[in-house]
Inverse folding.
C-alpha cells in the first residue's frame, strides 16, 4: 500500500505460531516421519505382537525405538529396565503421549527352539545392587513398550528380541511375535520398594539423556 505517494510495507503481526515456524525452518532437529514402518523388525531385534493391527500402531512408537537404537541406548541400557523405562516414559510424555511405567513379569518363549525366559521374576542370580523386578512403558493403556530385554537376546541367540512392542491386555495370554517368539506380561503390585530409590539415584542422568535427545529431535 502507499501513503502520500510513499510505498509502505504492510505490517504483519508476529505471533507464537510464526515464531515456531521461523525457529523450525532453521532448526537442524529431526521431526517425526509419520510414515515410519519396519518391514522386517526382527532385523533390528524388535518383536511386534501380531495381536496388534500394524496400521493402528502410532508410527511414532516404532520410530522412537529406531531413535533409541541409533542413539546407542538400547545397547547401553538394555539391561537397565528402571532407567530405560523412566527415560522412555519421560520422552514420550514430552512428545504428548499418555505414557506410564508398570512393574511386570515378562514371560517369553520360542517353542520352535525349545526356549523360555522370565524377566522380572524372583531370581537367585541377582547381581549386587540389582533388584529382581522388571519395568515397562504402557501407552494409552493399549500398547506396551518393553525395551529392556537384552538378557533374552544374550541367552537365546541372534533371532531372539531385545525389545518388544505388544498389546497391553488383562488376559495374560501369550502374544505371537512371529520369528521373535511369544510374550505375555503380568503386572506386579505393589511396586518393589527399591524402584523409587533407584529412580532418585539416576534422576540427573535421565534429565541429561532427555536434553541429549531433544538436541537432535524436535518436540
Amino acid at each position: 500500500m502507499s501513503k502520500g505517494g510513499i510505498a509502505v510495507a504492510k505490517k504483519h503481526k508476529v505471533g507464537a505460531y510464526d515464531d515456531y515456524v521461523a525457529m523450525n525452518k532453521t532448526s537442524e532437529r529431526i521431526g517425526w516421519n509419520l510414515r515410519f514402518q519396519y518391514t522386517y523388525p526382527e532385523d533390528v531385534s524388535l518383536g511386534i505382537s501380531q495381536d496388534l493391527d500394524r496400521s493402528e500402531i502410532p508410527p511414532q512408537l516404532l520410530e522412537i525405538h529406531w531413535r533409541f537404537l541409533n542413539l546407542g541406548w538400547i545397547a547401553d541400557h538394555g539391561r537397565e529396565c528402571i532407567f530405560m523405562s523412566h527415560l522412555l516414559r519421560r520422552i514420550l510424555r514430552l512428545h504428548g503421549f499418555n505414557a506410564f511405567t508398570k512393574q511386570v513379569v515378562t514371560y517369553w518363549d520360542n517353542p520352535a527352539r525349545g526356549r523360555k525366559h522370565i524377566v522380572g521374576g524372583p531370581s537367585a542370580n541377582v547381581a549386587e545392587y540389582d533388584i529382581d523386578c522388571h519395568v515397562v512403558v504402557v501407552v494409552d493403556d493399549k500398547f506396551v513398550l518393553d525395551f529392556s530385554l537384552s538378557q533374552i537376546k544374550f541367552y537365546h541367540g541372534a533371532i531372539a528380541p531385545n525389545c518388544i512392542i505388544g498389546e497391553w491386555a488383562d488376559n495374560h495370554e501369550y502374544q505371537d511375535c512371529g520369528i521373535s517368539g511369544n510374550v505375555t506380561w503380568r503386572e506386579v503390585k505393589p511396586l518393589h520398594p527399591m524402584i523409587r530409590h533407584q529412580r532418585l539415584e539416576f534422576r540427573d542422568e535421565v534429565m541429561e539423556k532427555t536434553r541429549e535427545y531433544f538436541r537432535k529431535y524436535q518436540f
The first helix runs from residue 16 to 26. Residues 21 and 136 are 35 Å apart (CA to CA). Helices lie at 16-26, 59-70, 73-77, 81-94, 150-156, 195-201, 203-216. The chain has a mean pLDDT of 87.
